[in-house]
Design goal:
Elements lengths: L2 E2 L8 E5 L1 H15 L2 H7 L8 H7 L2 H6 L2 E2 H10 L4 H6 L1 E6 L6 E2 L5 E2 L2 H13 E4 L8 E4 L4 H15 L1 E2 L13 E2 L1 H10 L16 H4 L3 H15 E4 L2 E6 L2 H13 L4 E6 L2 E6 L1 H17 L7 H11 L11 H11 L2 E2 H8 L3 H13 L3 E7 L3 E6 L3
Antiparallel strand pairs: 1-6, 2-3, 2-4, 4-5, 5-9, 7-8, 8-10, 11-12, 12-14, 13-14, 15-17, 16-17
């Protein structure tokens, strides 16, 4: 399936149509049925509403204020020979019945692009499914601390569906932007998923996605690198408490010809995209970024660039690194990560020299940045 029309969404979809199209519908209805009472008596879904409501539906002022169930418009259009495609082209906004958020300036039909599948991947990697009360449909909440990536999640949604009326752009401050029920339900529908499909310990990449082309596979991998990835010197590491899901990502790497390894330890799966694989991945990512700017890796992009620069440094395996590190600490207190970034060396390599210099009693630990990053200082300073 490459796209889905709004009448195929399922669920309780309500819409607003533009007034020009409403006038066209009314004109054709009166030409055929002459009176509103005759329309009401002869069009099938009007039996589920009162004549008073039906009368209001045909008023422009009512249409501007209220969302009307799509099935009513479908039946009216079918009764007077207007195609569903024409109805779809004249929709100004849509939502689920009783849902607070709606989509306006909609992009219809909805295309199943790599960004669509990337959103699914984000929700598998770092999302939750909220099951509200009072008969409302479930919807996604995406956990993300980084404000840049958080805003990109919204841009991904809007690039697929259209503008969303989020109140006051709350997601700029909240760490959990939400995907409205009317949109969340589509992800369940397209790949036959349910709320349990997104549980962290049992979630899997849908087989339909695993069998797609390079762009779709790459978009899924990028989502997991953003949400669960670590740049460990010269490798990208994804460690999940779900070995089968990690193996799905390993299989994606194999299909994309990224040199990588997969291991598992008890409940955890570990994917390592090795230096050559990371280099190819980054090249593919840069090409795809031109077409889909929403896939941006954010801060991770710079980390990968710096990691790849390590092997372009002439002395990254030189004995002179020990003296470079010692001289840096003579003038400034630094962590292993800070040193590695500045001299473009692996963190493991810096730690090796730090431990040896520490044994020589030339440096000492001064404190911590966060919980684990030790600050080192020169003993004679």
């Amino acid at each position: 399936m490459n796209s889905i029309n709004i009448w195929e969404f399922g669920g309780r979809i309500s819409i607003k149509i533009n007034n020009g199209f409403l006038k066209n519908i009314k004109e054709k209805l009166f030409n055929k049925y002459k009176t509103k009472k005759s329309m009401f008596n002869n069009i099938k879904n009007t039996k589920n509403i009162t004549f008073y409501t039906f009368n209001n539906i045909l008023k422009e002022s009512y249409n501007k204020r209220f969302f009307i169930p799509i099935k009513v418009w479908v039946d009216l259009c079918e009764a007077i020979g207007i195609s569903l495609e024409e109805l779809q082209q004249n929709i100004e906004a849509y939502k689920t019945s009783n849902g607070p958020n709606y989509v306006y300036e909609p992009i219809l039909p909805v295309r199943i692009t790599p960004i669509f599948d990337m959103i699914i991947a984000h929700n598998i990697a770092d999302g939750t499914v909220i099951n509200p009360k009072k008969g409302r449909l479930p919807y996604f909440g995406y956990r993300q601390i980084d404000p840049f990536i958080r805003e990109l999640y919204i841009k991904k949604l809007e690039s697929i569906f259209g503008k969303i009326n989020f109140p006051n752009k709350y997601y700029l401050n909240s760490t959990r932007p939400y995907c409205p029920p009317v949109l969340s339900s589509l992800f369940f529908l397209i790949y036959n998923l349910n709320t349990k499909s997104f549980l962290s310990r049992s979630a899997r990449i849908p087989n339909e996605i695993l069998n797609k082309n390079i762009e779709h596979l790459l978009s899924v991998l990028i989502a997991f690198i953003i949400d669960e990835g670590n740049i460990d010197s010269t490798a990208i590491v994804i460690r999940l408490k779900n070995p089968k899901l990690t193996e799905d990502l390993f299989n994606i790497c194999n299909k994309l010809c990224y040199k990588s390894t997969f291991t598992y330890n008890k409940d955890y799966g570990n994917l390592y995209i090795l230096r050559d694989g990371m280099k190819k991945f980054f090249g593919d990512y840069k090409l795809m970024l031109k077409k889909y700017p929403e896939i941006n890796l954010g801060k991770t992009e710079l980390k990968i660039e710096n990691s790849l620069k390590i092997y372009n440094r002439v002395i990254y395996k030189s004995k002179g690194n020990r003296n470079i590190i010692l001289n840096m600490l003579k003038y400034e207190d630094l962590t292993v990560n800070q040193i590695a970034l500045r001299i473009k060396m692996t963190r493991q390599g810096v730690r090796f020299h730090i431990h040896n210099i520490e044994k020589e009693n030339l440096i000492l630990k001064k404190g911590f940045i966060g919980k684990k990053n030790i600050i080192y200082t020169y003993r004679g300073r």
